[in-house]
Amino acid sequence: MKTILTTSAKEAAEFIKRGGNAAFPTETVYGLGANVFDENAIAKVFVAKQRPADNPLIAHVGSVEQIKLLVSEINETAQKFIEAFFPAPLTLVLPKAERVPLIATAKLETIGVRMPKNDLALEFLNYCETPVVAPSANLSGKPSPTTWQAVFEDLNGQVDCILQGEATVIGLESTVLDCTTEIPLVLRAGAITLEQLRKIEPKTKLYQNKKDEKPKSPGLKHRHYSPRAKVIILSSKFKVQSSRSKAFIGLNLPDEEFDLIKICASIEDYAHSLFAFFRECDGENIETIYCQKIAETGIGLALMDRIKRAAEN
Ligand code: TXA
Ligand code: MG
Q: What domains are there in the chain, each with its CATH number?
């Protein structure tokens, strides 16, 4: 398959309309889109990414109006979150409408819905004239792509089209918030922070998967975000071990010598740079990546979540 590269949102949307797929930028990471009502097109997304069939997709809308096409009910709490945040790096899990095919939700009766805060994404979605399911546009298990070049690296020849936008602003995937439960549950931390959500609904909690329990968000059990290199979390007391080639990413310049160093200006910059740095390290055959530990508040919670997952592998 030849992958078409384009800067035209309209051209990329034509592929969706014709039953194909197209990768597109959002404010979080690049997504690989397909028409939410087209089972064949969705099946091709799972194949291209080598994504396990039990991992549900997020549906993206170009307007708040379109949410009604996807869900059977928007409860009061969800309505408050929509009004407070959309468009935003926030995915709300709601009961799905009957017409949404089960391949999109991995057989769940709920669907994740989000309206991205990115002009090119919204232009693309509006040209599509339908909600678009889109997982992150990486090969399953690899770090999510924050540039179109990273999408190209993973999926060239496997997808119909890549819409070439800017590097994504946030760099970590959206906050996933389950609104089908009595108390809203954060299933995946992201740029919309727990603190921000609690301003709207003070009871909002962070979901903690208990051992031996089926995770609420099936994606949480899959291997994720991992570079080939070994990832080690560097707290102040930790000693850097010798290894053939090592890299560092964090906020403060360490004393040791590294082969590759990324000093970030802020926690936001750290979040923005992490996945791209993982890919750069793999390109340079780095053996070990040291990631500076930071406080798990604000976006630090999402950042440490991704680093911990990468370190588990
Ligand atoms: O920022 C993002 O969310 C990006 C961009 C492209 O929008 N998308 C993204 O999609 O990260 P993906 O497929 O890589 O991650 C979706 C996550 C998975 O962990 C999945 O299990 C969870 O959301 N999820 C999706 N639908 C769900 C549902 N109905 N119930 C619970 N979890 C769900
Ligand atoms: Mg993903």
A: 4-206 (3.90.870.10), 230-312 (3.40.50.11030)
Classify strands 4-6 and 161-163 as parallel, antiparallel or unpaired: parallel
Residue 211 pLDDT class (50, 70, 90 cuts): low
* pLDDT, tens digit (0-9, with 9 covering 90-100), for 273-291: 999 999 999 999 999 999 9
CA of 97 to the centre of ligand 1 (A): 18
164 C-beta closer than 6 A to ligand 1: no
Count of positions (residues) in the chain: 313
**Is the CB of 146 within 6 Å of ligand 1?**
no
SS3 175: strand
Which pair of tokens denotes residue 187? Answer: 């299933």
Task: Determine whether the shortest distance from the Cβ of 143 to ligand 1 is under 6 A.
Answer: no
Q: Is 219 in the pocket of ligand 1 (CB under 6 A)?
A: yes
pLDDT in tens, 227-267: 999 999 998 766 777 778 999 999 998 888 999 999 999 99
